[in-house]
Amino acid sequence: MAFDAEIRAALIEQVRRFVTEKCIPIEAEVGDNDAVPQSIVDEMKNLGLFGIAVPEEYGGLALDMETECLVAFELGHTSPAFRSVAGTNIGIGSQALVLFGTDAQKSKWLPGIASGDLIASFALTEPEAGSDAGSLTTKAIRDGDHYVLNGTKRYITNANKADLFTVMARTDPSTPGAKGVSAFIVERNTPGVSVGQPEKKMGQQGAHICDVIFEDARVPVENRLAGEGEGFKVAMSVLDKGRLHISAVATGVSERLIKEMVNYSLERKQFGKPIMEHQMIQAMIADSQAETYAARCMILDAARRRDAGEDVTMLASCTKLFATEACGRVADRAVQVFGGAGYVTDYGIERFYRDVRIFRLYEGTTQIQQIIIARELARAAKAGKL
Ligand code: COS
């Protein structure tokens, strides 16, 4: 069911005002301090942002995917570190519970996730299992009414603030690949769970990624999501949705950078006139606008199809590939249009240039999206559905 149009417009307007009035003015400060102020986190809680993808009966706003993407476009209009504060609760940290949790599991954790009082993270990647997620080696061995977890997860967003993790671990070590994997909710305060120091990274200062280490961590059987051996499918379903969301965030950043380019080009004069009147500048801005518009249309189409119950695995990969690569090109052109100023910290463009680089990597690299698209096409052809 489509979200009520008036409520949607009011929500988008609220988020736009929050981004414009509260986030944009402190982008540099957040970058310098590598931290989003608590007052901003509190406002995000008040706006209900942590719970936009949680069902109403558990305290969330239950936005449909189209509306979630419209919100994500708005959040993309400022430094992506702000979005990241609630990002895992909106997306990969909560959705395994939303999609596969039992009523008891949902009642226990979703209200806290929706309010932002509990931070949820997604723990799939390992030191030796990145793109080849199905090769993960973290073990979860059944021992009575518990599973005993051992292993290390890597680059886990918001791990340093997380209260619970969706963890993919191998319940059947004798079965290699995706089939031996199960998914669990693991609480941070479980004995044997520890979190490493935040990594120093290229961009998105204010958002953090850390290792999560499991050493004989005993997790109750009732924390398992879906059946034994179904954890990889859980992870992939979560990523299908997450990839749409990230595409929308990246496209929001592209829109912001186009605005920056246009405003700067109207002010900046060279060869006796604003650089906006030079055709080579126009070309860079026009290409950025055309690509960003295309990304926006793709994302909304894929989101509507997901809302209508279609399988959007391939479309989510198409949007992730196109929107994040386009964003990379837009950020590169923004530096070019700003010239020397694009390279200087004060203007903030170089910060966006660094921030957007991760979009092409996380939740599946561009190359993984290409693999998924090609596989889905081949599968459809073999089934006579192409
Ligand atoms: N939804 C539901 N189930 C899915 C699925 C999806 N989108 N994609 C795959 N599956 C299922 C498959 O149907 C298969 O089950 P069956 O054997 O019962 O048919 C199982 O999962 C294994 O799938 P597949 O054979 O495609 O697995 P591969 O090991 O070949 O890997 C890729 C698949 C490469 C797509 C996967 O490893 C991937 O997405 N890697 C990137 C991981 C990633 O995004 N990491 C980012 C970090 S998390 S922020």
TrEMBL record:
<protein>
    <submittedName>
        <fullName>Acyl-CoA dehydrogenase</fullName>
    </submittedName>
</protein>
<comment type="pathway">
    <text>Amino-acid degradation; L-valine degradation.</text>
</comment>
<keyword id="KW-0101">Branched-chain amino acid catabolism</keyword>
<feature type="domain" description="Acyl-CoA dehydrogenase/oxidase N-terminal">
    <location>
        <begin position="10"/>
        <end position="117"/>
    </location>
</feature>
<dbReference type="Pfam" id="PF02771">
    <property type="entry name" value="Acyl-CoA_dh_N"/>
</dbReference>
<dbReference type="InterPro" id="IPR013786">
    <property type="entry name" value="AcylCoA_DH/ox_N"/>
</dbReference>
<dbReference type="GO" id="GO:0003995">
    <property type="term" value="F:acyl-CoA dehydrogenase activity"/>
</dbReference>
<dbReference type="InterPro" id="IPR046373">
    <property type="entry name" value="Acyl-CoA_Oxase/DH_mid-dom_sf"/>
</dbReference>
<feature type="domain" description="Acyl-CoA oxidase/dehydrogenase middle">
    <location>
        <begin position="121"/>
        <end position="216"/>
    </location>
</feature>
<keyword id="KW-0560">Oxidoreductase</keyword>
<keyword id="KW-0274">FAD</keyword>
<dbReference type="InterPro" id="IPR037069">
    <property type="entry name" value="AcylCoA_DH/ox_N_sf"/>
</dbReference>
<feature type="domain" description="Acyl-CoA dehydrogenase/oxidase C-terminal">
    <location>
        <begin position="229"/>
        <end position="377"/>
    </location>
</feature>
<dbReference type="InterPro" id="IPR006089">
    <property type="entry name" value="Acyl-CoA_DH_CS"/>
</dbReference>
<dbReference type="Pfam" id="PF02770">
    <property type="entry name" value="Acyl-CoA_dh_M"/>
</dbReference>
<dbReference type="InterPro" id="IPR006091">
    <property type="entry name" value="Acyl-CoA_Oxase/DH_mid-dom"/>
</dbReference>
<dbReference type="Pfam" id="PF00441">
    <property type="entry name" value="Acyl-CoA_dh_1"/>
</dbReference>
<comment type="similarity">
    <text>Belongs to the acyl-CoA dehydrogenase family.</text>
</comment>
<dbReference type="GO" id="GO:0050660">
    <property type="term" value="F:flavin adenine dinucleotide binding"/>
</dbReference>
<keyword id="KW-0285">Flavoprotein</keyword>
<dbReference type="InterPro" id="IPR009100">
    <property type="entry name" value="AcylCoA_DH/oxidase_NM_dom_sf"/>
</dbReference>
<dbReference type="InterPro" id="IPR009075">
    <property type="entry name" value="AcylCo_DH/oxidase_C"/>
</dbReference>
<dbReference type="GO" id="GO:0009083">
    <property type="term" value="P:branched-chain amino acid catabolic process"/>
</dbReference>
<dbReference type="InterPro" id="IPR036250">
    <property type="entry name" value="AcylCo_DH-like_C"/>
</dbReference>
